[in-house]
Amino acid sequence: xxxxxxxxxxxxxxxxxxxxxxxxxxxxxxxxxxxxxxxxxxxxxxxxxxxxxxxxxxxxxxxxxxxxxxxxxxxxxxxxxxxxxxxxxxxxxxxxxxxxxxxxxxxxxxxxxxxxxxxxxxxxxxxxxxxxxxxxxxxxxxxxxxxxxxxxxxxxxxxxxxxxxxxxxxxxxxxxxxxxxxxxxxxxxxxxxxxxxxxxxxxxxxxxxxxxxxxxx
Length: 217
Hints:
Helices cover about 25% and strands about 20% of the residues. It contains five helices and ten strands; from the N terminus they run βαβαββαββββαββα. Strands 2-5-1-6-7-8 form a six-stranded parallel β-sheet, covered by helices on one side. It has a two-stranded antiparallel ribbon with strand order 3-4. Strand 9 and strand 10 form a beta hairpin. Helix 1 packs across helix 4. The longest helix is centred in the last third of the chain and has 16 residues. It is globular and about 60 Å long. The two termini are about 25 Å apart.
């Protein structure tokens, strides 16, 4: 149920978005379903003043969903910064790989983009989760270096070192919006218990995926 994740990090103006756009196209070309999360530290608006959804939101709704036959969007207030892993688990679990732009403080595998015209100082060089640097600068490091325009090389790296090495878990546990790692024994116990209970329920004998939510009162 978990999805392989790669974060593209770097200073503002480094070329993350340009490289990421090319990487997405190449991954899709190779047959992968790609999900993307963009981190915006300054906030953003996707609704338009005067529209029905804007009026619903400003009337006091904590969450509004815009839904059409081909796509939907969620506008929801949060009390704290949401965990990207929880968003991925809830909304992007059908992706073959999820790419994020930002989230440099999270423990996702990372590729740092550095353009010498913009910055000469890497932001994640000492991060143990750094896979490689895509740059046009001369940097002394033991980390793998890729040309900043070598999007196919970046995709080769993601495919080889992230997607193909990723071990999909059969069970994932989310508590208060946070993914909780499970030991194999607990994972197996939860899986067999839920499968055993649902097999006897009408219309659930051939279920491929089970989602259980428990609210403590």
